Structure prediction request, 332 residues.
Amino acid sequence: MTAVAGPLRRSHESPVNSPVVASLVPVVLFIAIGYVVGLRGWIRAGSVKDLSNLVFMVLTPALLFRTMGQVRIEDLDFGPIGVYFAAAGLVFAGTMLRQGFSSLAAARALANTFSNTIMIGVPLVGLAFGQQGLVTLFTLISVHALILLTAATVVFELAVAREKAGQPDHVALPLWRTVLQAVRNGIVHPVPLPIIAGLLFAQTGLPIPDVIDKPLQLLGQALGPLALLLVGVTLAFTKVGGFFKAALQIALVKNIAMPLVLAALGWALGLSGLSLAVMIVAASLPVGANVFLFAQRYEVAQDEVTASVAVSTALGLATTPVVLWAVTRWVA
Prediction:
């Protein structure tokens, strides 16, 4: 994926030629092309998982390692990332308080806070903010799933134990074992591992040899277009049906309320600049697919979560441009 030269800046150019529009047009176009491809049946539904594996197992690790392999740890800014998780915690807790402590509420709370940082976030941030923005996003991604999914696992397990308490055939596993397994799965994963490996390599001060760097560069450049095409294909095969209202409620919280909470926290703490701008954009991204895996695992709200991924992605075509425009004017 080729990024624009440098982050977005305020501009007095016409809207058509603005950096925001230039960054968003490829995103919308590739998703639209993927949607048409899915509707036409040029890619079968059964092939979507294989393409997804290609993105996550090959292209994503290549881009993550190559980018983070040039970053010194002392140059990373963890302040906005802390604000990101504080905002996610507030939205998650607010959802649980409003809907009660149950596995259904936990599924909705995770959908309200877990962003599609890879398939949409990486291409969008790369186009909008360049290499520096990607470093900030990858710093978030390195702990995004680990922190949110581990916390969600604890909540899910406690909720399920509460719901099944008293049932004669229920055998509860020790919570520590479940949490330990969640932490392990969060680290031994094709997203955090190449980030950690790249950072460790970068601390040696050695350049990546050209014979390795060039293939990594080519693989990384393929990630953005293929990931966005895959988002469109997935939308074509997703049936929203009778879950539209519930899915829309989740989408409104995820795409609008989550970035607003983050922006308010950042403003209250006096933060600004590129790192905070990337965090706000990341918070505005649609619901990530990992939420469905949790719904499937705990057998709760599977159809509703699937619909929310589709609805929030479609809504994001309207809301994310607004967020991106706003942060380039008042934050970055």
Q: What stands out?
A: Residues 1-6, 9-17 have pLDDT under 50 and may be disordered. Residues 33 and 229 are 7 Å apart (CA to CA). DSSP finds twelve helices and no strands in the chain. The radius of gyration is 20 Å.
